[in-house]
Automatic annotation (TrEMBL), chain B:
Membrane association type: Multi-pass membrane protein
Transmembrane segments: 27-55, 62-84, 153-181, 188-207, 213-232
UniProt KW keywords: Cell membrane, Membrane, Transmembrane, Transmembrane helix, Transport
Organism: Fructilactobacillus florum 8D
Pfam family, one: AzlC
Tagged with keyword Transmembrane: yes
Subcellular location: Cell membrane
One GO term of the biological process aspect: L-valine transmembrane transport
GO cellular component terms attached to this protein's record: plasma membrane
Record protein name field: Branched-chain amino acid transport protein
Entries under InterPro entries matching the protein: Brnchd-chn_aa_trnsp_permease
Family as reported in the entry's similarity comment: Belongs to the AzlC family.
Principal place of residence: membrane
């Protein structure tokens, strides 16, 4: 089936609502209520777990959702360098730019 | 007086732009790539801009593009997108304490343009900078939204003239998350929890065959981290000794630069 512009438009509108709900509901729920202390303490561990999961997915999970250690070798090597750069320089821009450059170079080499 | 206020407002604006700039830059290659893919999936320029403004999520837009190229039905695309975006519920929950007492309209605007990357920047700012306000965070979201939409537009214009190695471009975001992890790791406990999250992520991603695995891994690992943290803090009160797991790391670069 070939989609036309109008169908794409409606798809986008539907996607907007589907994407908005999970973003809006928790924010709005806790906006006026007092947030329990234990919940805040729990949520403090969310960013690091989420970011680690995302990175693990990028580095070790293939497009078909199977596990692979060496599937993304250039990215893996660059990641180690990015961690070191981030640790010592604390600069987001440097980490991203050097990491990206390294992956470009390594993809050519390997 | 008014002049002074206006001046400081401009200064704040500039500061927010500076804060969001590294993120904005890393959006350019991936946004252009996303625009090219959406064009290849049959989207016209208007819809490319619209989806960038309304959905504003790299992962979601790549998913839409790839599902349309394999002719998936509408219901499947929307459903997949819902599961992909479910993790934003976690982002919203963990930021909610900083947005306490804001108006419905503000919360709506904030929710509309919140995504993984600007959440990461905003969370870091909220937790390290006491001067940082919700409206600053919204400005940072809007800067990243602007750069994202423009890059998608450029990608749509370039269209099929260029092919891009997507995995390489995608690493910009991986590097961004790695940076955020390093910023978050402040004690040995956090390192252990991150390791646990990594293991769980692999397990759940392979088992669920979808990004829903990210949600499970994050929920469980963060909860275990919270329970251990709570236990150690209680022990500390009893024994008056701080557990080595909770001791803060020394920062090799001195105080964090913004």
């Amino acid at each position: 089936m070939e989609w036309n512009g109008l169908q794409h438009f409606f798809l986008v509108i539907l996607c907007f609502f589907v994407a908005l709900l999970p973003r809006f509901i928790p924010l709005s729920f806790f906006r006026k209520r007092k947030i329990p202390g234990w919940f805040n303490e729990w949520m403090e561990f969310v960013p690091i777990c989420l970011f680690t999961s995302l990175v693990v997915k990028d580095l070790f999970i293939t497009k078909t959702y199977s596990f692979s250690v060496t599937g993304m070798l250039p990215e893996l090597i660059a990641s180690v360098v990015v961690i070191l750069i981030a640790f010592w320089t604390r600069s987001m821009a440097l980490s991203v730019i050097i990491g990206l450059g390294l992956v470009f170079a390594l993809t050519f080499l390997i | 007086m008014i002049n002074k206020a206006a001046h400081s407002e401009t200064a704040v604006r500039q500061q927010n732009f500076k804060t969001s700039f590294p993120l904005d830059i890393s959006y350019i290659p991936i946004g252009v790539a996303c625009g090219i893919l959406l064009h290849a999936a049959g989207f016209n320029l208007f819809n490319i801009v619209l989806v960038s403004l309304l959905v504003f999520s790299g992962g979601a837009q790549f998913l839409i593009a790839s599902m349309l190229t394999i002719n998936s039905p509408l219901v499947t695309v929307v459903l997949m997108l819902f599961f992909l975006e479910l993790r934003y519920a976690l982002l919203g929950s963990s930021l909610s304490k900083y947005l306490h007492g804001q108006s419905t309209w503000f919360t709506f605007l904030f929710a509309c343009s919140m995504n993984d990357e600007n959440y990461a920047v905003n969370y870091l700012k909220f937790s390290t900078d006491k001067q940082f306000t919700p409206s600053d965070a919204l400005q940072i979201e809007h800067w990243s939204l602007l750069f994202w939409t423009l890059s998608n537009f450029v990608g749509g214009v370039l269209g099929s003239a260029i092919t891009i190695d997507l995995t390489v471009v995608h690493f910009a975001l991986t590097a961004l998350f790695l940076f955020m992890i390093v910023m978050q790791v402040k004690s040995l406990l956090k390192v252990l929890v991150a390791g646990l999250a990594a293991g769980l992520a692999i397990f759940f991603l392979v088992v669920t065959k979808s990004t829903l695995g990210l949600v499970f891994a994050t929920l469980i690992a963060s909860f275990i981290g919270f329970v251990i943290d709570n236990y150690l803090t209680k022990q500390r009160k009893k024994t008056q000794r701080k557990s080595p797991l909770l001791r803060m790391f020394k920062n090799p670069a001195g105080t964090p630069r913004e």
